[in-house]
Amino acid sequence: MDILSGFHPKVVHFPIAFFLVYILLELIGAIFKKDFFQKTAHLFLFLGVLGAVAAVLTGNLAENTANIFFGAGTVQRKAIGLHEDFATITLWYFSALLVLRTIFTLRKKFSGKIKLIIVLLALIGGLLVYQTGELGGNLVYKYGIGTKLIKKDSTNNSERIPRWGDKTK
């Protein structure tokens, strides 16, 4: 299963893209009231949820790999936990939105105020996607997690390999 954890950085871009396209299509569908945009938005929401499931599952595997390097109280562990929390919330949020949108669509009640509420919920979901991505980016670019900047030393702790321009004490 350790091999699958390496897919996380590759998989995460799919739900990000699908959710952002979903939000855009939901807005366009609400503004122009075209059935094509509304149906396509629904499809992208579904694909985004599927991608988010894959991202969360591979992320959990990657977290298990990272636990080898970091102790429970380290800044890196806390950053991983925060990213994981936001990713899980985002997955559940969009899953609930998919269920709601599907119910309203099947009952032919996806119009008027319901549509505006769904658009508002989609925009709020966009903020969750942004924050999750920001926290994930920090793991890579701030802490070097998932890169060759982290090496395992003999005491099973992690050590950041200094880069050019780093200030030394």
Polypeptide structure, described:
The protein is mainly alpha-helical. The protein has one domain. It is built from 6 helices and 2 strands, in the order ααααααββ. Strands 1-2 form a two-stranded antiparallel ribbon. It is elongated, with a radius of gyration of 19 Å. The N and C termini lie far apart (39 Å). Residues 152-158 have low confidence and may be disordered.
Summarize the structure.
The chain is mainly α. The chain has 6 helices and 2 strands, in the order ααααααββ.
List keywords for this structure.
single chain, 169 residues, mainly alpha, 73% helix, elongated
**What is the CA-based Rg, rounded?**
19 Å
Mean pLDDT value: 87
Oligomer state equals single chain
Q: Name the beta content range.
A: under 5%
Tally of strands = 2
Instruction: Give helix % range.
Output: over 70%
**How would you characterize the largest beta sheet?**
2 strands, antiparallel
SSE class: mainly alpha
Number of domains: 1
Number of helices: 6
Shape category: elongated
Give, in spatial order, the strands making up the sheet with the most strands. 1-2
- Point out poorly predicted stretches: 152-158
Straight-line N-to-C gap = 39 Å
User: What is the N-to-C succession of helices and strands?
Assistant: HHHHHHEE
